[in-house]
Write a structure and sequence with these properties.
225 residues; mainly alpha; Arc Repressor Mutant, subunit A; Four Helix Bundle (Hemerythrin (Met), subunit A)
């Protein structure tokens, strides 16, 4: 196969992946539902191979489960899933923050404070999409000081799994306000050069499943038991 054909197939696989990811994010593919591969391939006008490749990637990232002789099922996000994701994200983000003292300066903390203030404004404006994007950008300020691409990719995938099952597009105001308060505290600690304390707070409070559990169960409509 010519290199041009390989690139075309790779691009097609990525397009199918993005289509399926968006369908999960929007709720068009509901948790627990099965994906009709034959029908979907016909609707998209593609062969089964790029669809299979996209589904393999989605399975690796935890969005679907391939069940032998039954098909491909969109995964439900369980309370245990969320607990595990919080543990992984908290550990990795904390490690970056702990070792980023020499790379986080006044410019970075100023950017973090500006983003956090914009998040507060987004809450007041009931602009969920802006809040969501600003929240990711806030964490990216210190995450982008890391030179570990595997760590960054793992955090990104974990956050996608948290937020895209499908993503809620309404506020749980108490949680959002609490989160921006935690952000402000993290900034204060960094500005006082207490990076290890900031890292521990990020892990043990901001990304603590036990601390955030009341908000989590309300946001994801889960039984708190």
């Amino acid at each position: 196969m010519e290199g041009r054909d390989i690139l075309r197939l790779k691009s097609l696989r990525e397009l199918v992946y993005e289509h399926l990811h968006q369908a999960i994010n929007s709720g068009n593919l509901e948790p627990g539902s099965f994906i009709d591969q034959k029908k979907l391939a016909a609707e998209l006008g593609i062969s089964r191979q790029p669809l299979r490749d996209a589904l393999i990637q989605l399975e690796l990232e935890g969005f679907v489960t391939v069940l032998p002789r039954r098909g491909v099922q969109v995964r439900r996000l369980t309370l245990d899933d969320i607990r595990h994701l919080y543990q992984v994200i908290g550990a990795l983000e904390s490690d970056v923050l702990k070792h980023a003292a020499v790379r986080i300066g006044e410019a970075q903390t100023r950017e973090m404070r500006t983003l956090n203030e914009a998040m507060v404004a987004a809450i007041e404006a009931a602009d969920f999409d802006a809040y969501y994007d600003l929240n990711l950008a806030f964490h990216d300020v210190f995450l982008n000081t890391s030179d570990n691409p595997l760590l960054l990719r793992t955090v990104r995938i974990c956050k996608q799994r948290l937020y895209d099952f499908p993503r809620e597009r309404r506020f749980h105001r108490e949680w959002e306000i609490s989160s921006t308060g935690e952000h402000a505290h993290i900034i204060d600690l960094i500005e006082r050069f207490r990076h290890h304390e900031a890292a521990e707070y990020l892990r043990d409070e901001h990304w603590s499943f036990d601390v955030q559990r009341p908000y989590i169960t309300a946001y994801y409509h889960m039984d708190a038991s």
